[in-house]
Design a protein that fits this description.
The complex is a heterotetramer, with one copy of chain A (748 residues), one copy of chain B (253 residues) and two copies of chain C (79 residues). Chain A has 748 residues and is α+β, with helices and mostly antiparallel strands. Helices cover 35% and strands 23% of the residues of chain A. The longest helix of chain A has 21 residues, at 134-154. Chain A is globular. The chains are: A alpha+beta (748), B alpha/beta (253), C alpha+beta (79). The complex binds adenosine-5'-diphosphate (ADP) and magnesium ion.
């Protein structure tokens, strides 16, 4: 008998239990209850998010595989597909930063090679609390080391990402990892089980008791008691995964395979049911045949274990030996643990005796779906109210020059070299734009082409307006890709939010999804997959709503790739787009006034699209020498970043003033540090300026010459008055040493 | 000529070395599985970068037992050119084909970045196309590249002019800040007494094409092509061959 | 005096390194080795010459820095 | 039976890990810790139940694989 307490431990509500009894026509046993609990957990069932996710645009001529498989895929020309996805590993990383981040990397890599693609790039998007907290430094150190430890070992370059520091993530850091692989479009493999009598095989690491209930844990808020769940930490084994990766890719070439799926969250349970349900078939396995690391494991434990580096595959009858031979070569042993059946049931046996029998559909398609109540958050009206006119001036000591240097030295804006130097970003010899230069860009060997990719998100914007903030994230990721000269083709998303059972959180979620959908439609980047991470709360305090968007684009000619750095002294600096002095939610407002307020910058998606088209065209025709978009910290920070890494080449710019406040210095700051969207700074050889301006005007993209590269200082004038004059050296030092300095001061 | 690129379980720069040998240098190459017992008539052997056996226990420690390593040793003993890059260098050290050992980087962190190395001697099959004193800009990517040898061994390898690459500043000066991992005497690359076996931590195969931002690694791989060409390098890498110019000063102890 | 700290993974935690070493030994013909677990070993040189306070200090340091309590446990010896 | 193998860097070899830990302890205020050396610790599960042959096997395995004689030395305990 299942009592109330047992139900609660499994995170199941009484009405959900009644549904279970309805499906089975009887009471479930404990193994069955465990299986239902993980499959109906938020993490696996998307029960709160599904109705909203359905509204996202997922179609396009380039889409080869939309959401629903292990990863999405888009056509990138010459018969090739880019297979990519992003996933979160937030909770495990908080509990054990190194292993949590490492196994997060391992998990997303498996999702990609499961599809038959060779993974060629990783990105990561990280959020922590303030770096002044020792606990956050330890967390950052552990997470970065874990990502490095896994990715470096397996030989997939980490070519980009973002790291943001914000008190809202202090009790709940975010670790989102993106992976991209390449396959022949015709070779994409799916996670299906079909063909009655075909063998179901298990391969990879042995099953232990690790991570049992990982999936339900990711679906519950943190509290004091979560410490008790700690032994549930999974340890990553990148060497095993490297063997699996090579062996699986080799097995796929044999054509003896029906389907393949990795065992991620909810392990064997999720992989057997999902494969069966995709193939419209049943799967029968005997847990006593599953390779086990520990003795005395129960069927319950075996079915729910989340041991890493394991795969499930279905072999064509009569071709099993070919598959086994490949795995043997790599010292892996594929073990037959069951077969495909026609009855649509998940049947679990233990030494022949049936211990669980559940209709697949009850676990997948028929899992609960909730249209949870929503309501506008109470904080919103006040947070959005920003009266710049009566904003008290910032401390008089803080000149525009010092503000710029301070912004450059704030950890969110500062160089992330401290982190990416720990990542092998060059293995596979495809990386043609290194981390720190903008998007990650990789050439595709055997073609002239290259892929550009970027992950972006701004939780503060989304807190102030989830809909617009989410649109801005899509726009920024696509713009970063376009700044490399690549045409954005597709997107993936990782939605990090609080507890969806709270109407205000659900509202944030729904609005953000609307914003993503709208921007993806307008910019022509369909969503091909993603991941939802809810319950990101500690003691009832939720993180900022944080959708993170990954965008992938294609460059026809790899050697035309653009990056952020100025190239030649005397080049003309052109600004595309218009600065309107928007300070809502900006880094400046936070740094100089300690405020997280206002509404995020306005976004005209038509203009954004035109800007991106312009950039792709200019890049293809070699008309600009560098490109960098304006984001955190606004135009002044962008121009400074263009000067960094050039060996000290400076710039002189002059921009118009804006009238947003009464205080003249706030107006100056708004012009320099306002974060108006859809802006890009390019440098252009002087005899190409006219052509560039004409092209911009043809696409109705505002464009104006704002200055020139050269010298060794950054000089910036607003409305004719020079308000920033600082040596590139000094500015660059603040930017490049900010994170290291915070570690140097550290006490462990 | 033909390259053999050995693939250990966990190697991850094998394809990169293969690509450099074939697509960039225009030579032929074979990927040779570590359980194989033949080098298939190769003229030069590459032990590539990566994490053989996960680098669990110690970098390169388990790979030396692979069946192919017997062949590599025989090949090396006969004077055949062998290069170990990064993890391959670590394997050569563990296998005793080169002297010394690797420690964790000082600072303990993995480091991936471009560094500068100075070519110290050109009488090896992997440096003969370079100029002595030439500074190359090549990427590294390792967590254990902190080269160590006991002082007597160090003295011997310096005297024998076995140190062929040192970390320097871009203009070729020795400087502690230019040493990314704490290697003794700033050693980045080493050859055997017979000069035909070479190990280096930087990855020349990552610096072979303009798209990748540097082509300075090409000279390492071109050297071996020249060395094995009918005419050979100028001043062939004959065993114990006399040096051109004085041995560069050693630093530290 | 000297304290020695042995840090090992908790028994329930998977040890991929130990597993890989054990496999390597198997294939080298050491069938007599059934399993290997790898841990860390620290020697601390301490100022104190009193065993009790040496042990207490070592334990504090192990808690704080040497062992990761989430997955590891430790043992101390002093002499 | 079980054999324990302790592998440590030879005294003449610089230990970057130990050094880093020692520095961290200093800055955490643990002045009582003068020096730290980090080594590796292996637990071997052996088939034999005879101490002498267990020790001999462990030594062979340590010589062959667990320790690198250029930089490391080892010590064995059986029980
Ligand atoms: N965690 C990380 N891993 C790798 N690269 C990173 C990471 N964080 C930031 N970077 C790199 O640093 C650069 C600046 O990042 P970011 O400030 O987010 O740029 P942008 O404003 O263009 O999105 C980018 O090239 C990015 O790829
Ligand atoms: Mg960004």
């Amino acid at each position: 008998m299942i009592d109330q307490q047992t139900l609660e431990r499994h995170g199941l509500k009484p009405d959900e239990y009644d549904r279970i009894v309805g499906f089975l026509g009887r009471e479930p046993n404990i193994t069955e209850l465990g299986i239902f609990s993980v499959m109906w957990s938020e993490h696996c069932s998307y029960k709160s998010s599904r109705v909203h996710l359905k509204t996202l645009p997922t179609d396009g001529p380039q889409v080869l595989q939309g959401p629903g498989e292990n990863a999405g895929a888009i056509a990138i020309g010459e018969g090739l597909a880019a297979v990519f996805k992003i996933e979160s590993h937030n909770h495990p990383s908080f509990i054990e930063p190194y292993q949590g981040a490492a196994t997060g990397v391992g998990g997303i890599i498996r999702d990609i090679f499961t599809m038959g693609a060779r993974p060629i790039a990783l990105l990561n998007s990280l959020r922590f609390g303030s770096l002044d907290e020792p606990a956050m430094r330890r967390l950052l150190e552990g997470v970065v080391a874990g990502i490095a430890g896994y990715g470096n070992s397996i030989g997939i370059p980490t070519v980009g990402g973002e790291i943001v520091f914000e008190p809202s993530y202090s009790g709940n850091p975010l670790v989102n990892v993106f992976c991209l692989g390449i396959a022949k479009a015709t070779d994409i493999i799916k996670g299906v089980a079909s063909g009655v009598g075909n063998g179901v095989y298990y391969v990879g690491a042995k099953t232990g008791r690790d991570g049992i209930h990982g999936a339900t844990m990711a679906s519950a808020e943190f509290d004091e008691k979560s410490a008790e769940k700690r032994p549930a930490v999974q340890v990553g084994d990148p060497f095993m995964e490297k063997l699996l990766l090579e062996a699986c890719l080799e097995v796929m070439k044999t054509d003896a395979l029906v389907g393949l799926q990795d065992m991620g969250a909810a392990g064997l349970t999720c992989s057997t049911t999902e494969m069966g349900s995709r193939g419209g078939a049943g799967v029968e396995i005997d847990v006593s045949l599953v390779p086990q690391r520990e003795s005395g494991m129960t069927p319950y434990e075996i079915m729910l274990s989340e041991s890493q580096e394991r795969m499930l595959l279905v072999a064509k009858q009569g071709r099993e030996a070919e598959i086994e031979r490949v795995f043997e070569k790599w010292d892996l042993h594929a073990v037959r643990i069951g077969q495909v059946t026609s009855d649509g049931l998940l049947r679990v046996k233990d030494k022949g005796a049936v211990v669980a029998e559940i209709p697949n559909r009850a676990l997948t398609d028929e899992a609960p779906v909730y249209r949870r109540p929503m309501e506008t958050p109470k904080y919103l009206a006040e947070a959005q109210a920003l009266d710049l006119a009566s904003l008290a001036p910032a401390s008089p000591q803080l000149t525009a020059r010092d503000t710029l240097v301070a912004l450059l030295g704030s950890p969110t804006i500062a160089s992330k070299q401290w982190a990416y130097r720990q990542y092998d970003h060059m293995v596979q010899t495809n990386t043609i734009s290194l981390p720190g230069m903008g998007s990650g860009v990789l050439r595709i060997k055997g073609t002239e082409r290259a892929l550009a990719m970027s992950v972006d998100g701004n939780g503060r914007y989304c807190y102030l307006d989830p809909r617009r903030g989410a649109s801005l994230a899509v726009a920024e990721a696509a713009r970063n890709v376009a700044c490399a000269g690549a045409r954005p083709l597709g997107a993936t998303n990782c939605l990090n939010f609080g507890n969806p059972e709270r109407p205000a959180i659900m509202w944030q979620f729904a609005k953000a999804v609307e914003g993503i959908g709208e921007a993806c439609r307008a910019l022509g980047v369909p969503i091909t997959g993603g991941n939802v991470s809810l319950y990101n709360e500690t003691d009832g305090r939720a993180i900022y709503p944080t959708p993170v968007i990954g965008v992938v684009g294609i460059l026809e000619h790899a050697d035309r790739v653009l990056e952020r750095r100025f190239k030649v002294s005397g080049d003309v600096i052109i600004l595309f787009g218009e600065g309107r002095g928007e300070l809502g939610g900006s880094e400046y407002l936070k740094l100089a006034h300690g405020l997280v307020r206002g509404v995020p910058p306005a976004l005209d998606l038509g203009r954004e699209r035109a800007l991106q088209d312009l950039l792709v065209g200019l890049g293809a025709d070699g008309l600009v020498r560098s490109a960098h978009d304006c984001s955190d910290g606004g135009l002044a920070v962008t121009v400074a970043e263009c000067a960094f890494g050039t060996g000290g080449m400076g710039a002189e710019i002059s921009i118009e003033g804006v009238e947003v406040a009464r205080d003249p210095r706030t107006n100056e700051a708004a012009a320099l540090f306002g974060e108006s969207a859809s802006r890009v700074v390019v440098s252009v050889q002087s005899d190409r300026v006219t052509e560039v301006l004409q092209r911009a005007s043809a696409l109705r993209v505002p464009a104006r010459v704002i200055g020139e590269t050269g010298g060794n200082r950054l000089r910036m004038a607003v409305a004719g008055k020079v308000v920033v004059d600082v040596s590139v050296d000094e500015a660059e030092r603040a930017w490049s040493t900010a994170i290291e300095t915070r570690f140097a001061k550290k006490v462990a | 000529m033909k390259f053999a690129v050995v693939v250990f379980p966990g190697s991850n720069c094998d394809q990169d070395a293969y690509h450099a040998a074939t697509a960039v240098l225009g030579q032929t190459a074979d990927l040779v599985w570590h359980k194989d017992t033949s080098l298939k008539g190769a003229d030069v052997v590459v032990l590539p970068g990566g994490f053989a056996h996960g680098d669990y226990l110690r970098t390169g420690a388990m790979a030396r037992f692979s069946p192919i390593m017997r062949e590599v040793k025989v090949f090396a003993d006969r004077g055949g050119p062998v290069i170990g890059i990064c993890n391959g260098f670590q394997v050569l050290l563990e296998a005793g084909l080169l002297p010394g050992a690797m420690l964790r980087n000082r600072g303990l962190k993995y480091r991936c970045e471009h560094v500068h190395v100075r070519v110290e001697h050109t009488d090896t099959p992997f440096t003969c196309a370079a100029r002595q004193g030439q500074v190359l800009r090549i990427p590294i990517g390792h967590g254990e590249g902190n080269y160590y040898a006991p002082s007597d061994v160090l003295e011997r390898i310096e005297k024998n002019r076995q140190v062929i690459l040192r970390y320097t500043t871009p203009d070729g000066r020795l400087d502690d800040g230019a040493n990314p991992n704490g290697s003794v005497n700033a050693i980045a690359g080493l050859c055997s007494e017979g000069r035909n076996v070479v190990g280096m931590m930087p990855h020349p195969e990552r610096a072979c094409e303009p798209l990748l931002g540097s082509t300075d690694g090409l000279v390492i791989l071109q050297s071996v092509v020249q060395a094995l060409a009918p005419i050979g390098c100028e001043g062939p890498f004959a065993r114990g061959g006399g040096s051109q110019g004085p041995a560069l000063q050693t630093i530290g102890s | 005096m000297r304290a020695r700290v042995f840090v090992t993974l908790k028994p329930s935690v998977f040890d991929p390194q130990g597993r890989t070493i054990a496999d390597a030994l198997q294939s080298l013909g050491y069938g007599g080795v059934e399993d290997v677990r790898q841990g860390k070993y620290f020697e601390l040189e301490l100022k104190t010459s009193e065993a009790g306070s040496a042990r207490a200090l070592a334990a504090e340091v192990a808690d704080k820095l040497l062992a990761n309590p989430v997955i590891e446990s430790y043992r101390i010896e002093v002499d």
